[in-house]
Amino acid sequence: MHSPSTDFRQDRPTAIVLLLPLIFVLSGTLIRFLAFRYAEPDTEWTQYFDALCRWDCTWYIRMAETGYDTFPVPSRVSAGNWAFFPFYPILVGLIGKLIPLPTIVLASLLSIATAYAAVIVAWPLLGRNIRAYTLYAAFVLSGPLSFYFTTFFTEVMFVLLTTLVFRFLGRSDYLGAAASAALLSGTRIVGVFASLSIGVKALMDYRQDKGTWRGIVGGLLGQPKLVLAIFISPLGFFTYAAFLNYWIGDGLAFSHTQRAWGRQIANPATYLWEGLVNWPNGGALLSNSQILALAAVTGLVITGVLAWRKQWPAVVFCLFCIIIPLAAGLASMLRFMAGMAPITITAATILGKNRVIFAISLIGLIIGAWFVTLAWLGGNVALV
Amino acid sequence: MRLSDRSPLTLGAYALAAILALFELAVLWQALHPNVSADYRAYYIDRTTTCLPQPVTGEYVLGTELNFRSEGDETRELRPCGWTGPAGDGTHSVGETSRLRFAVDAQGPLTLMLELTGVTLPGPAQQRVLISANGHDIGEIAVTPDKAERFVISIPASALDDDGFVDLKFDYPDAISPGKRVSNTYWRSIKLTTASLSPA
Questions:
Q1: How many CB atoms lie within 10 A of CB B14?
Q2: How far apart are CA B150 and CA A198, in angstroms?
Q3: What is residue B172's predicted lDDT score, i.e. its pLDDT?
Q4: In this structure, are residues B95 and B185 in contact, taking their beta carbons and an 8 Å threshold?
Q5: Which residues of chain A make contact with B36, given a CB cutoff of 8 A?
Q6: Under 8 Å CB-to-CB from A289, ≥6 apart: which residues?
Q7: What is the dihedral of CA A228, A231, A235, A238, to 10 degrees?
Q8: Dist CA A23 CA A19 (whole Å)
Q9: What is the reported pLDDT for A268?
Q10: Per-chain mean pLDDT for chain B
Q11: Could you give the CA distance from residue B143 to residue A234 in angstroms, rounded to a whole number?
Q12: A161 vs A2, A179, B167, CA distance in Å?
């Protein structure tokens, strides 16, 4: 991941930067639509958006339409939808009050627009390198996991806001980063860790500016913008906790309700190892557990690359966003890694360095979209 | 903008930061002191039970024998928690506790009949089931895997409340985890195929 330029004008998107992702919007939509027609030939084509809406997507639809569960949960189950953070479903719900479209159609269109914006915003972080940018745009909009970013999951908003946090941080704009982080912390539980990235960046800036750690506490507290940013950045998280306090009397209900999903807290390394050695039965190349564990390992390796490049704010963010969910098991790890902008952006910059690797990666992403979308439609649990 | 500026903007920024800090501390304090029901606390926070009772009517005609298989009677309104299914071989217990609720206005003692089978997962030879009615212990039975048996348990009049319900609780000290690192909310013990509650 590169730093944005100190000169705003250099980071301004050019026509090619604006147009290129549109090609992938079209190709991605076409591939996913054809995969849907191939997998479900008897389903009406108008059901395309509904067909791609699986697993947690259906929870988000209900949240956008009817809001949060009361307690006891009206459907008489233990799993309350308090586990899901509110920002993106609420946004869809509010827009749905203005635009009378079916929720899944509206959410899918909004997700595509958000994904497009996330790609454009990432341009400076990709080193303004057209090959890295092409790969990143292809991955988000037309890649094997593009259905996460183009149906109704919070990942797409998480990617956009994370990218904004690191763009602002690249210019040491703490308040801009804090405003993005505040929304991020209301989008997914791990979004709150962007606050730590702001703190780490402030420490790095102080050290770079003064050349010493001496007087750091006074030096940091003497920056009103930074102090304000530190308290703004987790505001989404605290606002949601305040709502839960009011709504059901438990501000930590988002965590407590995980019990209904049977999540067991354990050593993340143990989960990782058990996943890696869970060999497949029946001739498959990899088991679902191995796919999920490898996704986490890939995330950790790229976090190592970020550490090697001394990009500590991103390292702290990535480590928390990998380790904390991993402590509750491997579930959804592929989706979580796909939604980690610092990791996927860094991967795109690495793969975009060499022309041949770039070409192979691009073709792999496009072809992969077909097969993985079919697996998604087939209910493959590694993709949950 | 620095602290040394002492401009209205600087002071305003610190004031706003202080307000936000107080708000966040207040929310944190509230979150650490939840104001929830005993059932909520036991299931989600203390994790002392795997069975979170859901509101059910318990509608039941005294003496009726109910079939808990998938092709049998509609029994959702009798099952507050701790059950999954029904399936073809009965309604399976899930977790370490299950509950049944019967809305009956009985004055005298009752007889509970249960037809049960133990799950066939690798584990103990028998599944012990500790049964209580309205919080009073009424018996312990042992259920064998893959073998349907009928059990008859007496519920004394002293175990009955005047709220119009008989709340039965089944605890499974030998419940079996169906896999490695599976939460106890998913452990298995028995399958319920038939039940009735009759005047003694």
A1: 14
A2: 65
A3: 97
A4: yes
A5: 71, 248-250
A6: A274, A275, A276, A278, A330
A7: -160
A8: 7
A9: 96
A10: 94
A11: 52
A12: 17, 9, 50
Closest CA to A345 of A126, A160, A162, A197: A126
Q: Which residue is closest to B51 within chain A, CA to CA?
A: A78
Structure tokens at A149: 């970013």
**Cβ-contact A176, A166 below 8 angstroms:** no
| Residue A10, pLDDT score | 82
Bridge pairing between strands B110-118 and B165-171: unpaired
Beta bridge partners of A364: none
Sort B33 into a burial class: Cβ within 10 Å, 0-12 / 13-18 / 19+.
exposed
Instruction: State the count of interchain CB pairs (< 8 A) between A and B.
Output: 111
Q: Nearest 10 degrees: CA dihedral of A353, A357, A358, A362?
A: -150
For the record, the structure tokens of B185 come out as 């909310």
Question: Which band of pLDDT confidence, cut at 50, 70 and 90, is reported for residue B162?
Answer: confident
Q: Burial-class residue A318 by CB neighbours within 10 Å (0-12, 13-18, 19+).
A: buried
For B112, phi then psi, to 5°, come to: -100, 125
Contact A228 B4 (CB under 8 A): no
Cross-chain Cβ contact A262/B34 below 8 Å: no
CB contact set of B40 (below 8 Å; sequence gap of 6+): A71, A248, A249, A250, B52
What is the spatial distance between Cα A22 and Cα A35, in angstroms, rounded to a whole number? 20
What the block records as the tokens of B69 is 């298989």
